[in-house]
Amino acid sequence: MKNKPSENILYITGAGVSAESGIPTFRGRDGYWTIGSENYTPQEMATRHMYENNPTEFLRWYYHRFATYRNHGPNEVHYWLADKNLITQNIDGLDGKAGNKDYIAIHGRLDQMTLFHTQGDPVTVIDTPWDEIEDNDKKHDEKQIDNTKLNQQLLSLFSINQKPELDISYKPFVLLFDEYYTELYRISEAQERMQNADRIIFMGTSFSVNITQMALETAMEFEIPIEIVDPEPVEVRYRNIHYHRMTALKYIHLYG
After folding, report:
1. In angstroms, rounded to a whole number, what is the distance separating the alpha carbons of residues 106 and 90?
2. What 3-state class would DSSP assign to 131?
3. Which active-site residues does the annotation give?
4. What gap in Å lies between CA 195 and CA 87, rounded to an integer?
5. 228 near 200, Cβ under 8 Å?
6. Is the pLDDT score of 3 beyond 70?
7. What is the distance between the alpha carbons of residues 178 and 176, in angstroms, rounded to a whole number?
8. Rounded to an integer, what distance in angstroms lies between the CA atom of residue 95 and that of residue 157?
9. Nearest CA among 78, 84, 98 for reference residue 7
10. Distances in Å between the alpha carbon of 161 and those of 16, 136, 198?
């Protein structure tokens, strides 16, 4: 299915697109949301509540499950998407590394952080100086890592004494389970892109987060055709839909 030259196509990507770069998906056997800590489930770990009340546990889990993948590079799909109208659910930043200058990272980015603030308040996004704890990156076995040292480094990195303090401490720039979309995540711009699209193509997503539901509802309201690219796509009840039962990589080779 070739794209029309004048067509405004919006691509919405999920974890399946970054799997080719060696980054685990969220709900697969080795996914982020299937691997918790020794004491907490992933749904308990990835919350603002955990960050506020047990920052050491939160940051250590976040570091092992996300930050250790920050040096992975883009794959062919990311490069293909580099000049596309794009909203990604992924926080790996690979679309930016591939050259996309105006994509929306709707769930944040693991290479960035903000001051810990009340949700909705304006705040600046800055780079996270992960290199300050670079020594641990050389140890692939978590049992070899000096956790006491890592804990201290992480708390120092995010300017946390015992618990995070508003407008003093830092928080990873990532939307957590018990948080909501704000302008920090460019939600109004994302909604505008959805409404203005001539077609919406979903790639590698399980449709299990709010942004994909929002996009589906927008497509139905404005009668926008949609396509789903996934080897095992979620069945969606919408008449104007086309399924590509394949990986994103195969899709771009066939239709790119």
Report:
1. 8
2. helix
3. 107
4. 13
5. no
6. no
7. 6
8. 25
9. 84
10. 37, 21, 50
Structure tokens at 115: 């001051």
Kindly tell me if the per-residue pLDDT of 200 is higher than 70.
Answer: yes
Q: Outline where DSSP puts E strands in the chain.
A: 9-13, 85-88, 104-105, 108-115, 125-127, 170-174, 199-203, 226-229, 241-244
Q: How confident is the model at residue 10 (pLDDT cuts 50, 70, 90)?
A: very high
Whether pLDDT at 29 is above 50: no
Contact 40, 62 (CB under 8 A): no
pLDDT value for 5: 63
Q: How many percent of the chain have pLDDT more than 90?
A: 70
Token reading at 175: 């939307």
Q: How do strand 199-203 and strand 85-88 relate by DSSP bridges?
A: unpaired
Is beta strand 125-127 parallel, antiparallel or unpaired with respect to 170-174?
unpaired
Of 31-35, 115-119, 218-222, the one with minimum mean pLDDT is: 31-35
- The angle formed by the CA atoms of residues 129, 131 and 137, to the nearest 5 degrees, is 135
Give the model confidence (pLDDT) of 157-167 as tens digits. Answer: 999 999 999 99
* Helices and strands in the chain: count of H runs, count of E runs: 10, 9
pTM of the model: 0.89
Structure-block tokens of residue 26: 């969220």
